[in-house]
Amino acid sequence: MTVVDVHAHVFPEIGRAESRRITGSEDGPWLRTTDGPDAGMMMAGAAEYRPVRRTLWDPATRVADLDRLGVDVQVLSSTPLLFGYGLESARAADWCRTVNGHLSRYAAHAPGRLAPLCQVPLQDTEAACSMVTEAMREGFHGVHIGNHLGDRDLDDGALLEFLAHCAHEDAAVLVHPWDLPTDPRHSRYMLAWLAGMAGETHLTILSLILSGAFERLPASLRLLFAHGGGSFPYLLGRAENAWHRRDIVRADSPHPPSYYTERFAVDSAVFDPGALRLLVDVMGAERVLLGSDHPFPLGEESIGRLVRESGLAPADRDAVLGGNAVRFFGLAHLLKEAVR
């Protein structure tokens, strides 16, 4: 049985000088590191953002983690702090190429074990499309994007154009919440992460459904939402009830929300056996992929343990642990190379 973790982050060793040179900003993201297993700090200019483990920037440490945890392959994406969506287009393109270059070199440390996703300057549709095409030819396995761009959600016309291009290039898309609420009500107890993240993903999925965006997107698009789809699977009944009872809800969507669960997948990062079983009931076992949010503290420490101990039927358990991810990200060739 192959175990594939599809939600795992990297923050390359980008120093402040490199960040300043490419972003043109004193407040750009960079990584401060010292010796030791937990001796890193994600930085935003001079401000400390979050302490991090060596796994985040050191591929040898990551592979050792994977060996210890029994994970065969990790699909790698940049840390959302690195998206660069606030940069002007030319700088954003340079920044994304820099991050992608670092990710490619990181994954090259263990090409049969680490499968990178690129990032793109989503604020420039033409450049973003071009970069996906370029990245797929360079061996990336898809693209990692934020769930919105300012006040534009993924049902925005330009962003739909980008998603359609991803379908054309057969590039899987991992959607991650970012740019979380900063108001005082979210500032305590990590509530921006505990409540804001789930709400952001829920909002994006409903925006795609209720706007009729899925009717305009190619059915071949492979779309994956992190963190178990946020609040969506657990509040689907509320949206379903509203679609049937209020014409303002169903104005642009010809089918109820449950109809569209076949159009996207989610990861398994829900941290509770009952929640995982409900997630599988709502989405179907074939559309749930193992995701850990490794190596962050809010991620699953023993990757795959929840799936193994959730009481899922053996076939569903094995599909979630790896079979679904192999198909979704086209990893069969990678696994054959690893065995060879």
Automatic annotation (TrEMBL):
Gene Ontology MF: a single term:
aminocarboxymuconate-semialdehyde decarboxylase activity
Which keywords describe this protein according to UniProt? Decarboxylase, Lyase, Metal-binding, Zinc
- InterPro entries for the chain: ACMSD, Amidohydro-rel, Metal_Hydrolase
The UniProt entry, under SUPFAM superfamilies, shows: Metallo-dependent hydrolases
Presence of keyword Acyltransferase: no
GO annotation, biological process: secondary metabolic process
Q: In which pathway does it act?
A: Secondary metabolite metabolism; quinolate metabolism
EC number(s) stated in the UniProt entry for this protein:
4.1.1.45
Hey, which family's this protein in? Answer: Belongs to the metallo-dependent hydrolases superfamily. ACMSD family.
Q: How does it assemble?
A: Monomer.
> This chain belongs to which protein, by name?
2-amino-3-carboxymuconate-6-semialdehyde decarboxylase
Lineage, uppermost ranks: Bacteria, Bacillati, Actinomycetota, Actinomycetes, Kitasatosporales
